[in-house]
Design a protein that fits this description.
Blueprint lengths: L6 E7 L14 E2 L2 E2 H12 L4 E5 L3 H7 L5 E5 L8 H14 L8 E6 L7 H9 L4 E6 L2 E2 L3 E4 L3 H6 L5 H7 L6 E4 L12 H12 L1
Parallel strand pairs: 1-4, 1-6, 4-5, 7-10
Antiparallel strand pairs: 2-3, 6-9, 7-8, 7-9
């Protein structure tokens, strides 16, 4: 599982978890948690240190992710901002990073897709398309993978229609990559989603 492109990820984990009714990044999932499972999927695929954008309960999440190869960026406006605002902060931090060159690919995703597999991530990273979106059973999912050459254009987006609007504004046809990984579709928005994801994991 050795992708030919270097890659990293920006994970938006600043939200209030209002619909869940509990702070979902730290909810247990098997031997890990929702957020740790996602970070470990990227690590297992060969990712460079992952950028996690925190907001609500930032110190709790930072402690929870201790020991993992993550970079933490704080969204102080987490109560009033949207997911794309957090992704933009993470991308901006990569742009400003002076210690290392930009990787070839950057994955963008929310923190609540814990079942996406390392194999799917590695397969997406190997693609040469500027935008790669995974598709399972005819449905588009997360994460989205973009070429680092798209970074500056993404940072210029005004936030309208979130990540979808930013990608549409690039005027580049994405590669819809068919994968046999239902994990790309299993976002944990509500407690019902969480219970369903736990059942899927047990299977």
């Amino acid at each position: 599982m050795c992708p030919t492109n270097t890659f990293t990820a920006v994970i938006a984990a600043a939200g209030l978890s209002t619909r869940m009714g509990a702070f979902k990044p730290i909810l247990p999932l098997g031997e890990e948690s929702i957020s740790r499972s996602l970070v470990l999927a990227f690590v297992g695929a060969g990712s460079l240190p992952v950028t996690v954008v925190t907001g609500y309960m930032a110190e709790t999440l930072a402690s929870h992710l201790g020991g993992l190869p993550v970079r933490l960026v704080h969204n102080s406006a987490y109560r009033t901002s949207q997911m794309f605002d957090s992704l933009r902060l993470g991308l901006l931090s990569l742009q400003k990073e002076e210690a290392a060159p930009l990787p070839d690919k950057i994955f963008l995703c929310p923190a609540d897709i814990p079942l996406v597999s390392s194999e799917t991530i590695a397969c997406m990273a190997r693609q040469e398309a500027d935008i790669v979106i995974p598709v399972c059973s005819g449905r588009k999912g997360h994460p989205v993978c973009v070429s680092s050459s798209m970074l500056f254009a993404l940072l210029e987006h005004d936030g309208t229609d979130g990540l979808r609007g930013a990608l549409n504004g690039l005027s580049i046809k994405p590669l819809m990559l068919a994968v046999s990984d239902p994990g790309i579709l299993t976002d944990a928005d509500t407690m019902e989603d969480y219970e369903r994801i736990k059942k899927l994991l047990r299977r």
